[in-house]
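Known limitations

Structure tokens in this collection are predictions and should be treated as such. Users comparing against experimental data should check residue numbering before alignment. To illustrate the layout, the record for Roadblock/LC7 domain-containing protein is reproduced below. The input appears on top and the generated tokens appear beneath it.
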Amino acid sequence: MANTETTLKECLASIEGATGAALVDYTSGMALGTLGGSKSFDLNVAAAGNTDVVRAKMRTMEHLGLKGGIEDILITLTDQYHLIRLIAGRGGNGLFLYLVLDSKRANLAMARHQLKKIEEDLEV
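Generated tokens:
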């Protein structure tokens, strides 16, 4: 089992093209931990904004009567992928891992696979 710091380090070290990672509480919009990013890309601002994305999707699913859970949400930009993976089980309710990838260097399928493995080892 890995803690937040170890998990974020593993995201950046083991996922090709990863430039930033955060563990986010979507009930408050606060990042519980961040790693990476840059002066022009504030992971705390991105975490708060992506909280709205998660909440909107959950409301939509509720209105549609969908019973399944969200595994991940993908946002593709011209030069980046933003991957939001909701934490399942072990007290992770209300949390998600947020990963920023350089689309020119990343393999999206492998990134999703790696992020799932990393999420399974996270101890919150």
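For this record: The chain has a mean pLDDT of 93. Strands lie at 18-25, 30-36, 72-76, 80-86, 95-102. Please report discrepancies through the issue tracker.
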